[in-house]
Design a protein that fits this description.
150 residues
Length: 150
């Protein structure tokens, strides 16, 4: 019986961590795509584009994490930030490292235009890679109670 309960808890944690990863990924993608697009349109260097995309990913990722906590749990901005900052910072960090590395390796951020197929193909592959990299991290963060679903 104990093994069955342990398996059920493990399955629930996998589902919960996948949901948390998708939620985090949504914020990252909004900021990442915006930053990559701006960087490419303005002709910024690769490092400037990465810094811009990562900064915007953190801003949008944290915003999507903060708003539900503030609304549903009736927390102030600072109270909500204290609740989510560590889990979000780690999860977004892992996603951004992987997503930017994949995008760079595929040539997406060096594309001629945001209308170039390689720009969008690289983003799609980077998003999948970011999810796959962050999912086990979110599973671990949830299992250690360092991240909460909101």
């Amino acid at each position: 019986m104990e093994t069955q309960v342990h398996k059920q808890n493990s399955d629930n944690n996998l589902i919960t961590s996948a949901h948390a990863t998708l939620h985090c990924l949504t914020g990252c993608v909004i900021g990442e795509v915006t930053g990559l697009s701006i960087g490419l349109l303005l002709g910024l260097s690769v490092w400037s584009t990465i810094i811009l995309a990562t900064s915007l990913a953190y801003i949008s990722g944290f915003t999507l994490g903060l708003l539900p906590v503030m609304k549903h749990k009736k927390k102030s901005f600072l109270e909500a930030l204290k609740m989510i900052w560590l889990g979000e910072a780690i999860s977004i960090g892992v996603m951004e490292i992987v997503m930017n590395a994949v995008d760079y390796a595929m040539g997406g951020m060096q594309a001629d235009s945001i209308l170039s197929p390689i720009f969008w193909i690289a983003i799609v592959v980077a998003v999948i890679a970011g999810f796959l990299a962050a999912w086990p991290v979110n599973w671990w963060l949830l299992s250690k109670h360092l991240k909460k679903c909101h």
